[in-house]
Amino acid sequence: MRIYKVGGAVRDRLLGKPVTDIDWVVVGATTEEMLAKGFRPVGADFPVFLHPKSGEEYALARTERKSGRGYGGFTFHASPEVTLEEDLIRRDLTINAMAEDDQQNLTDPYHGQRDLEARLLRHVSPAFAEDPLRVLRVARFAARYAALGFTVAPETLELMRQLSESGELEALTPERSWKEISRALMEDQPQVFIEVLRACGALKVLMPEVDALFGVPQPPAHHPEIDTGAHILSVLQQAALHKQPLTVRWACLLHDLGKGLTPEEEWPRHIAHEFKGLKLIKAVNERFKAPRDCQELAMLVGEYHTHGHRALELKPSTLLELLQSFDVYRRPQRFEEFIAACEMDARGREGLEQRSYPQADYLRGAATAARSIAVQPLLEKGFKGPELGEAIKRERLKALKAYKEQV
């Protein structure tokens, strides 16, 4: 029995990055031997065990072959005869196909270290094309390591293109897709994830609504970058620079989908794109079964982001409607995330990345003014039921008028 550290832990150590998760591979062992040493079995698909003390995962060396469509269409074979090299060749990228023993002696049969130095994301073998999830994984790694100068090897991008055209991407489950998308959006350069998916044709398959934004012009006076797709990439980049949470990044990606529906003869204007885009945002939300908080914020930002930009011009009654739509009284955090998404949208324009966004503080102040209305005095005046609701609304409107005058 020989035990090796494999995959990301080896890669990140060689890159000088912090190692968080460690994967272990056991060569030359049987299930019975693992159980005898106190390891606890997990998972039904292939032999993976939890270490009796550390709780870390140890997998028996295995081979795999394609037996069906999609991510789950594989048959695994684990036995003491499977070599380390045979286990490593089934991995996605050369930089993830290295192993080291307890003395940090490196086993690198597929030249992962060379590709690390060349800053290349390259597939290990043609078997790469058997797993459609790898298209998303490679795009995610490209987003993670873009700052270090990593790019996707041309031959790997070509395999990703073939996978995108094969229909295999449609076999991915919403859960698996969302896991990769959400992780990619939280990388330091999430816009690279979208760029790579677009370069290999996967964006057109997975999110045709986002792909349709590229090549769609916007008014240069408001958008010096002109292209709506380029704008979306910039907004995502700003969201990452400002350390925004996943909810905000997801909303940033989807907020302008309605512009993809504008007839060419109306370009570069996009009248009512906020409302037109809602059905598209809903479709993307449902396709990937995004978490409820992500779905809700994306819909609200899609509908109201131009209200955010025009906050200082809004009538008190419109401002009150906006606050009611977000339920700022019970869910203040969601409104704060809306403000963040609007600010990222405003900053995601060429040459305007550093421009101030006074609308943010104005909206926060408006929410504070509306929330300052106490219900108890109105109850004491005898208001109840629908009348109480109307009285609260009148008082909040009064407070917003006073707030607007004072600002």
Please give a structural write-up.
The protein is α+β, with helices and mostly antiparallel strands and 407 residues long. It contains 20 helices and eleven strands. The longest helix is centred in the C-terminal third of the chain and has 22 residues, at 385-406. Strands 3-4-5-2-1-8-9 form a seven-stranded mixed sheet. A two-stranded antiparallel sheet has the order 6-7. The termini are far apart. The chain is elongated, with a radius of gyration of 26 Å. Helix content is 51%, strand content 9%. It has a domain at 1-111: Beta Polymerase, domain 2, CATH 3.30.460.10.
Which percent bin holds the helix content? 40-55%
Compute the gyration radius: what is it? 26 Å
Q: What's the main sheet like?
A: 7 strands, mixed
Percent in strands: 5-15%
Number of helices: 20
Shape: elongated
Arithmetic mean pLDDT? 94
> Strand order, biggest sheet?
3-4-5-2-1-8-9
Structural class by SSE content? alpha+beta
First and last CA, distance = 73 Å
Low-confidence stretches: none
Q: Could you tell me the number of beta strands? A: 11
CATH topology of the domain at 1-111: Beta Polymerase, domain 2
Structure summary:
This protein has a domain at 1-111: 2-Layer Sandwich (Beta Polymerase, domain 2). The protein has 20 helices and 11 strands.
Give the topology.
Blueprint: E1 2-6, H1 8-15, E2 23-27, H2 31-36, E3 40-42, E4 48-50, E5 57-60, E6 62-66, E7 74-78, H3 84-89, E8 99-100, E9 106-107, H4 112-118, E10 120-121, H5 133-145, E11 151-152, H6 154-166, H7 174-185, H8 190-199, H9 202-206, H10 208-211, H11 228-241, H12 246-254, H13 273-276, H14 278-287, H15 292-309, H16 316-326, H17 332-347, H18 359-371, H19 376-380, H20 385-406
Parallel strand pairs: 2-5, 10-11
Antiparallel strand pairs: 1-2, 1-8, 3-4, 4-5, 6-7, 8-9
